[in-house]
Amino acid sequence: MEDTSSTFQQGNSSPSSLDFSLCPTAATLIFLPSIYALLFLTALPGNMLSLWVFLRCISTISPTHVYLSHLSISNLLLCLTSPFLAAYYAHGSAWALNDILCQLVLHGITPVLHINIYISLLILTWVALCRFAALIQNTHASRPSTLITLLPHGFFTRLTKVTFANTVCVIVWVVSVGGIVPVTVYYSVNEAMSSTTSTEDEKGECMKVCYSPPVELGGSTSATLTVPVIIMFFVFYLLVLLCYMTVLRHIRRSRRNTPLSTSQNLLTRVFRNIVVIQVVLSVCLLPYHIYKPIFISLAHDQLELAFTYGPEICNSCHPLSTFIELKNCLFLLAALRGSTDPVMYFVLDQKFRHQTLKLLRCNQKNQWRRLIFWSTTSNPKAEQTGEGNVGTATADLSHESVL
């Protein structure tokens, strides 16, 4: 399922490559549905817990909390699409193109997927810039960074303001939704619905199916609009990389002139945070965006087939079936970020880590109390032993909180 590729030429006398069917292997029929189901089971509770901590457990909100809470909302929307994606890859080659589930995937799930990817890209970039601004304002090296002389001081001050973070998040949502939805709507209405043939039905006639070349390849309009999106990704990716290199250089300068102190600890934390963001972008999003232009080029070069298959064309595999499966696997890698983001929050933000551990320990303590209550009520002779267990459990929890 893709809204970013090139359409193929259609002919009257010979079949187009869109007339062929896709031949899904175990990677599509088993691996992708299984991982998307696992994504739903892990990402949904993780992001719900993260959003609860950000909104209800942290009293003092920072710009980083604002960015990460909006990222959690975006990931929750992604989680809700995972079961439908699992069903699409498992049964899409049997669904008719006009089925309700197929239409839901084309018109509803596709926009949510792409919106999530680019909201994540933009928000993680602003988190890196926010951390970088905190470093610039609170630490000093032997010589100021070149960026300090090029950019106005007010720019770094605004990056550390909560109101500015809220404004940025609103703009990110508006830009992402406003840029993605029109393209995906055009793709799902005009390009994906252009399917001609795909597989044979019980009567031996070709029928239009959901998992087909037009759905997975898209058309020329969405391919054209993919170019600025790819450029935008690499611009923001290089911006985060620039922050990483600048912070690393800033740390080296500072350690020559500043003893180990709060400033040095701040340098270490900011460096670690930007490294985490860089790793997330490199592992989850970079492979897909490197492969995207290659895939578009392959689709563009796949010209109209000059030979006729006749009635057997419905059962003939599309030449790009393997490349489409690879594209879908890399897109899964980008979507898996939804289940790893809560772990990233745990590493990035100290308050989030403290409140999450506090919440989990509170739940663990309540479970111990309920367990001891049921054991003492079911066996009155064990009441004294139960009281001893309460004291031991409380002592263990106190020791754990100190650690």
Summarize the structure.
With about 400 residues, the chain is mostly helical.
Walk me through the topology:
Blueprint: H1 26-57, H2 63-91, H3 100-138, H4 146-150, H5 153-159, H6 162-191, E1 199-200, E2 206-207, H7 213-217, H8 220-257, H9 262-301, H10 321-335, H11 337-348, H12 350-378, H13 383-402
Antiparallel strand pairs: 1-2
Helix pairs in contact: 1-2, 1-10, 1-11, 1-12, 2-3, 2-6, 2-11, 3-6, 3-8, 3-9, 8-9, 9-10, 9-11, 11-12, 12-13
Let me know the number of strands. 2
Low-confidence stretches: 4-17, 303-311, 381-403
Neighbour order of strands in the largest sheet: 1-2
Could you give a short account of the major beta sheet?
2 strands, antiparallel
Percentage of residues in helical conformation: over 70%
Q: In total, how many domains does the architecture comprise?
A: 2
* Proportion in β-strands: under 5%
* Alpha carbon gap, first and last residue: 48 Å
Oligomer: single chain
Q: Describe it for me?
A:
With 403 residues, this protein is mainly α. The chain folds into 2 domains: 17-348, Rhodopsin 7-helix transmembrane proteins (Rhopdopsin 7-helix transmembrane proteins), CATH 1.20.1070; 353-403. The chain has 13 helices and 2 strands, in the order ααααααββααααααα. The protein has helices at residues 26-57, 63-91, 100-138, 146-150, 153-159, 162-191, 213-217, 220-257, 262-301, 321-335, 337-348, 350-378, 383-402, and strands at 199-200, 206-207. A two-stranded antiparallel ribbon has the order 1-2. A hairpin with a 5-residue loop joins β1 (199-200) and β2 (206-207). α2 (63-91) packs antiparallel against α11. The longest helix is centred in the last third of the chain and has 40 residues, at 262-301. The radius of gyration is 26 Å and the shape is globular. The two termini are 48 Å apart. Mean pLDDT is 76; it is low at 4-17, 303-311 and 381-403. It is found in: Membrane. GO terms for molecular function: G protein-coupled receptor activity. Residues 46-345 form the G-protein coupled receptors family 1 profile domain.
